[in-house]
Amino acid sequence: MMALAVLQQCTRKNVGGIMSDDLFSFTNRGEPKQVVSEFIDEVETTLQWVTGKVKERSRPPPHTKKLLVKSSKEYQKEESIVNNELKTKVNQEQSKIFSHIVEWATLGILKPDENHVAKEESIQKNVPTETVESDLLRKTNEEYAKNLVLREKIKTFLKRARAAYGRTALCLSGGSMMGNYHFGSVKALLETDLLPHIISGTSAGSVIGAMVCTRTDEELIRDLKPEILAPKMSIFESSWGQRLSRAWKHGTMFDQDDWYGRVQWFTCGEMTFEEAFKKTGRVFCVTLSATSKRAPPVLINYITAPNVVIASAVLASAAVPGFVDAMRLKVKDENGIVNNQAKCDEVSC
To answer: Cα separation of 96 and 91, whole Å?
Structure first.
């Protein structure tokens, strides 16, 4: 319990200021300070030790399994039997003491029946054994019950610690073609097995985030290669003359339908947020802004919008006035048919 109390203080964000920028601003090796690394390692070791001990102790011993599955009535019946045995033992001890007193008072004239004494001794040899076994089972059961309570406390602590400490997420920003830098970051995290399960993206970052969350690790390793990615990065291939001409005629430099078709390679077609989560186990999040005034931002993921097509959310995140039109989100029904979301404001980044 003392270790648990200490862990409750150590599993908070920025405990002791370990996330302070000053600790990581100056370093010769590009690694966290040694004291921070040692602290995190010690917390991890203590967590494993506490959970391992509780898990080991909460397993019912083999000789108590039969007792632990009894009903409450059976427990009461057994307790009554034990009490009767204890009363019998007390009476036998009292009788034995009384017989010795009588023998001493009559100078041995009145001696207890030897057969009776032998019978009593035989009974006394058996009763304590059963009583001891019952007491042992009862004590073991009580200890097991305490360990079960401690196990529930550990579970509650771990849930609260997870909520307080939070989970690591990868946030990919926009920046047009500058977003290509994200490919290298994702590949490095993937190769070191550090790629988080929660990924959010905006504009160009949402394109790369969608690619990560719609592909398994094997598919990512296959597609994260320059010779495969380069031909797909043709979204800005039109000349400035074509862009200005289209902006003069239609109000935007790029065609929304053209972009929607190109981005589907990154999103594995018209895959929805829920389908992507079921396939990869990764949570993809995109934050959008409605075109109507005073409307709050919209968070799109497999929980809030499971049937929304990822490609439409990605394109909505990249929509900028004069650049590409705002995108109406698309949804996929239970029959796999994709339609525009009805009665919904168009959204953009």
So the answer is: 9
Crossing angle, helix 310-318 and helix 256-263, to 10 degrees? 130
CB of 307 within 8 A of CB of 293? no
How many whole angstroms separate alpha carbon 220 and alpha carbon 344?
A: 34
Identify whether the C-beta of residue 93 lies closer than 8 Å to the C-beta of residue 138. no
Contact assessment for residue 167 and residue 200, using Cβ atoms and an 8 Å cutoff: no
List C-alpha distances in Å: 154 to 1, 161, 162: 10, 10, 12
- Mean per-residue pLDDT over the chain, rounded: 75
Mean pLDDT of 29-50: 78
- The per-residue DSSP string of 151-219 comes to HHHHHHHHHHHHHHH---EEEE---GGGGGHHHHHHHHHHHTT---SEEEE-THHHHHHHHHHTS-HHH
Helix, strand, or coil here: 308?
strand
Decide which of 132 and 12 is more confident.
12
Distance, CA of 32 to CA of 129 (rounded, Å):
62
What are 338's strand-pairing partners?
332
The residue among 149 and 193 whose pLDDT is bigger is 193
Backbone φ, ψ for residue 309 (5° rounding): -75, 130
Is 321 in contact with 303 (CB distance < 8 Å)?
no
Task: Calculate mean pLDDT across residues 283-289.
Answer: 89
The answer to whether 7 and 157 are in contact (CB under 8 A) is yes
Give residue-wise pLDDT tens across range 58-85: 676 555 444 444 444 555 566 566 567 6
pLDDT digits (tens, 9 = 90+) for 155-164: 887 887 777 7
For residue 52, the model assigns a pLDDT of 82
